[in-house]
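Final report, closing paragraph on structural work. Over the funding period we assembled a curated collection of sequence-structure pairs, and we close with a single example.
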Amino acid sequence: MKYDTVKFESKGNIKMIAHRGLSGLERENTCPAFVAAGQRSYYGIETDVHITKDGKFILCHDSDIERVTGVNMVIEETNFDTLRAIRFTDICDDFPREDIFLPTLEEYVHICKKYEKHPILEIKGTFTGGQTLRIVEILKNFNMLEETVFISFSKESCLSLKRVYPDARIQFLSEKPEALADALDFCLKNGFDADFSHKMITKEAVDRIHESGLLFNCWTVNTPELAEKMKELGVDFITTNVLE
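Its predicted structure, as stored:
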């Protein structure tokens, strides 16, 4: 089997975003996954940022690390150095690798800058204004703040970020079809782009977002057939584990 991305040949002007890095080929939310995405044609690289017990930023999707590492630790209850010391295995054959560990926010932003990719940064949970400001300062230090798109399921995090950094590019995440009307209203009221699960997207929803001058992202789309359907609905971005 060829170990490579799946090509979406008719993507046109749709911008492709690598979900948790190129997580179809490398262990999700690790530096190898970010580099693999950086070396390909993606517009942006998505990741998830948490804060540790001792107040440092670390990248992982879940609030605990058991699914990706096999070790049962809750990020917010564990110090950074303990989390950082854990090594885990290659995605394809469970071969142990010393280069696979939980990255820092700085390492991720450095890789995005090196490969000229847009950081697509998911704020997990609800951060305080001070914590959000620290993230903004890290991005500023790399001259990557204006390149960054912030995403979150938390309405308060989106609003807090807008208060701290009014010019932020923000996408509100939503995944339940029954929440479509509320999610659309929240985006339209606050000027946030939509970032919805493909399961809840309709042509009417996309049109309403576009009529307000906003953009529409969809996730997680991993087949050309589904990507083609999203293209027909008019989305601007596709977030994917393996399509390119």
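DSSP finds nine helices and nine strands in the chain. The chain has one domain: 15-240. We thank the funder for supporting this effort.
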